Amino acid sequence: MMFPLDIIVGLCERSSIAVLKQPKHPNSQFGWISAIPDTESISSKTVGNTVYVVENVSFAPKNATCVITRPDPDKSKWDQNSDHIFISTDLPPITVADILQRRLVNIIQWNDKMAQMLEDGCINQDLLKASESVLKCYVGLSDSTFSHIAHTPNLHPLDKHSQYFVEHGCYSQKTVDQIRQSGLMHKWNSQDFTIANNDESILDGFPYASHVIKRHGRYAAHLIMVSPTRITPHYIFLFNLLAKKVEVCLSRYWRLENPLEQRYTYFLKEVLSGNTYDKAGLEERARMHGLPTTGLFEICVANSAWKTMPTEYFARLILTEIPECKVAVNEEKIVVLICADSNKPQNLIDTEKALCNLAQRMDVEIGVSDRFTHLSKADFALEKARIALNYGHRYSQRYIAFEGQDTETTTMYRFYRYFPYFATDPFAHSEKFIAKLIVRDNPIAALRTTDKTRGTNDYEILRVYLRSEGHINMVCEIMHMHRNTVMYRLSKIKQAIGEDLDNGDVRMYLRILYLLSD
Asked: What is the pTM of this model?
């Protein structure tokens, strides 16, 4: 473990040893303190890593960082350009080295103890309690809403703000207002290192140190230490050791509780952005992240969760109540991937219903794409779900009169119902999407491809069926086919496109696809 030279000053002060000259480069690092008089046996590799306590600078190894006892009274002879630290004490060098090294060992043991606590699954309260004997200062940890996470249990807070924090589990509104008015919030959002303030401050004039903990580049938690005395670099170093351990502990908690930290999340975001690689690469990465590449899929998008709760809270509810769903969060939007085995379509329906009920219970609107059969199509399905959500929010009230206030009408908006609104919206800039829909991913294009492969005529049969409003006799007459043949071909068409032809919204969607294709 390496220490900055600045820490020696604090260790000397705690041992009642007066420091006459500070180090010129206080951030230079060392790992050990020694008082070895026989310099000939010292390896050159250890010289720069060790601070030597000697009677006179001439006894120290060449180019070594030294702590000198009983310096020459004539300060003009002191080497002001070196990192030598001059102290005043009657103690012999070996005693000074032993005192300082013991204190360094205590710091190392404390740091190792906290590391072991993290391995054993400790909480932040345990880390702060373990810091009491070393820091001897009140330490409090709050989240970005100024709510309590942990504090040192056996050290009484000095200032009234910390006292309120301990008693009520949050900072008072008056304190929060003072923080905002003083501009501290802005500083914390951009703060990347520990800041010590020994002047008069918001904390009743007591010296304090603050360390901001960020998550995905945003201010997420705040660790603060309030001291009865001036905060020296020695205490800042110790406080930073604690802050690093607290940050690890919080990161572990966020991984367990935050849907952003599911193991598949970042891969799913890549897929949703269209970064799907080649087929072999996609299958390999999907297997690594526990996602299937084939089956039955739907994409759902929710962007109104912020109205009644944090977005992450709704995502966490989905993961808890419907573990079959895969969730990704992007700012205020939640994207849900529903997947099921192609031989078990009922599982997809059941998952969809559970999500629908949860959304209705939490008053969240969701846009739903049509079904697709390969994970590589997820990015385009996401566009469909966004269209459904956008236009469903605008026009869903039109369906309440004849459908009632059921979940399908007021909560879940399906792409095939609201696509006609998008296709006929003159302000939608829909050309690029429609061109992609026609050439890439639509059920009637799949029928046309199948007809060429198998020599069937399902594309025209479906067109006539839609134009005749589902009258089988009219289809038979126009296509010159027997009724049983038409019924058989229609059953195959339903299987191929994966949609319910008895649904009026589906029939409207398919008719528009025919018009666009023509």
From this structure: 0.54
